[in-house]
Amino acid sequence: MAARNGKAGLLEKWRIDEKPVKIDKWDGAAVKNSLDDAAKKVLLEKYGYSENFNLVDGRLFICTISCLFAIVALIWDFLHPFPESKPVLACCVHTYFIMMGILTLYTSYQEKNIFLVAVQKDPAGMDPDHKWQLSSSLKRFDDQYTLRVTFTDGTSNNTREDEFTKSVGAFFDVNGTLVMDQFEKSVSKLHDTLATEKKTK
After folding, report:
1. How many angstroms separate the first and last alpha carbons of the chain?
2. pTM of this structure
3. Cα(93)–Cα(73) distance, rounded to whole angstroms?
């Protein structure tokens, strides 16, 4: 009985906000975002991992460089009105579109559908950090939500992954409220399976 109360207390501690998450269940983007946020909460708050922002920082860096070229073009054209500014404007415009191409490649092949990179630090501080990644997909006009958990061992650098695909109806009630207990069980099962494999190898 005490163990059951302890588990309930743990779930209550990291539950998403004080009020239930409620969305328009016909809005695919809102459904996916709410499930992604909930999965992120499980790893960061239940398991106590730290979020790594390097993937997002890479995208922001590319966007910042693109914006700098746009700003240079704007200032240069103000100081040296067209047509005197034509060579600089042409250079900045071409560079901007090149950077946008690089950004597209980065989001398609580097970020993919990853929405969380979390670091599991060694309590003793002796071993390298382990890395957990969460990625998901929900096709347009489809109810099948796929969540993939990827684990990279910091010591051996080996990578393992597991995933589930379920109807979003399994995680939302008729009013569009997220049933967090159900979703948490599915996410934790993926995590614990990979964590168990890590310990047994």
Report:
1. 33
2. 0.77
3. 8
